[in-house]
Amino acid sequence: MVTSLPGPNFWGTTDAEVDPDKISSGIEYDLATLIAAKCGLTMKFRNEGFDAIVAGQVAGDSYDIALSQVTITEDRAKVVDFSTGYFKSDQGLLVKAGTAAATFDDVKKLTIGVQASTTAEYYFTSGEVAGWTLDNTKVFPDLSSAYAALNAGQVDGIVIDTPINLGQASQSEGKLEVIGQFKTGEEYGAIFGLGNGKKAIFDPILQGLMDDGTINGLIAKYLGGDPSTVPFIDVPVATATS
């Protein structure tokens, strides 16, 4: 089983937990152990780079399943197999408490940090958002670096999946808050090596854990807030010109 750490409230409860052998809680940790139990297996965890996981650069025969808050996309599905979606998400804006940014015009005044190879990076660097400049975006190799930059005042906000940022805010003793989110309509999926047949084994198990309410129970247990209560920030979409 591979993942990319840290993953607050998905793997452990803080962004300081980066040793898979010392983690014993979290949405995806619990999900992985439940899947292993249903298969009669003992789960062994390994930490890999997020960009390597989503690019299919982790050898498919070296792991059975990857759970790492990975959004299902067409491009990624060309190099890895995805499970059925098990978690819905949009992109949340995490800032220091007291920072005001209710509109996109407010957000344009901020310097935003994103993690490399995430949908947040694509969102803010692809030109899809009208009026956004790359000068306002800083890309970090991992989430720990991004959060450290926010705490050090090197960026004004971090954009990553709303539930991940809610988890980080819940561990900040009120110093950080998620003040808005951007509608992207994403779904997380487990990853398997391309064409190795593992999807057919694990998909029915994941579907069963969704159908019986287990996954919703884990979400309610670990998240520091309900993503549906975070207000959406309207964003202008760039239009193609001929």
Question: What does this protein structure show overall?
Answer:
This protein has helices at residues 27-39, 50-54, 104-107, 119-125, 143-151, 162-170, 198-211, 214-222; strands at residues 2-3, 46-47, 80-82, 87-96, 112-115, 137-140, 157-161, 176-188, 191-193. The chain is built from eight helices and nine strands. It has two domains: 2-87 and 186-228, D-Maltodextrin-Binding Protein, domain 2 (3-Layer(aba) Sandwich), CATH 3.40.190; 89-184, Periplasmic binding protein-like II (D-Maltodextrin-Binding Protein, domain 2). By secondary structure, it is of the alpha/beta class. It starts with a strand and ends in a 20-residue tail after the last helix.
Counted up, domains total 2
The CATH topology of the largest domain is given as D-Maltodextrin-Binding Protein, domain 2
- What sequence of helices (H) and strands (E) makes up the elements? EHEHEEHEHEHEHEEHH
Spatial sequence of strands, sheet with the most strands: 6-5-7-4-8
By CATH's scheme, which homologous superfamily of the largest domain applies?
A: Periplasmic binding protein-like II
Low-pLDDT segments, ≥5 res: none
Write down how many β-strands occur, each being a DSSP E stretch of 2 or more residues: 9
Identify the CATH architecture of the largest domain: 3-Layer(aba) Sandwich
Q: Termini separation (Å)?
A: 47 Å
Shape assignment: globular
Percent range of helical residues: 25-40%
What's the short version?
The chain has 242 residues and is of the alpha/beta class.
